[in-house]
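=== RUN LOG ===
request id: a7f3
mode: sequence -> structure
chains: 1
length: 113
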Amino acid sequence: MSWRASSGLRAWLLQRLSAVYILVFLLMFAYVWRGQVITYDTWHAWVAHPAANIALILFAFALLLHAWIGGRDVIIDYVKSVALRYVLISVFALGLIILGLWTLRSVLLVGVT
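=== RESULT ===
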């Protein structure tokens, strides 16, 4: 079975892997900040650290990938009109791209300042 022929398996696997990364990131985040009051200065210092910055960018990418696969599958399963399905998937993809670019810009700007 080729990788291309198993697109359903690929989507399933990517969704599970992204869910695992999201869970690990949130558990590590809770461990690092356990019980502390998060102020702007502490948050800024944490995000400015290169390892945290990369982990946060990967978290945002995993979250967007997870949302894309789930949202796309819901639209494909429940919207019967092909034209409406195309429009909804396009709008959904555009929204996720905009959110991803905005998040990337925000995280990288924190790392610069």
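=== NOTES ===
The helical segments are 7-32, 40-48, 50-78, 82-112.
The chain has a mean pLDDT of 91.
=== END ===
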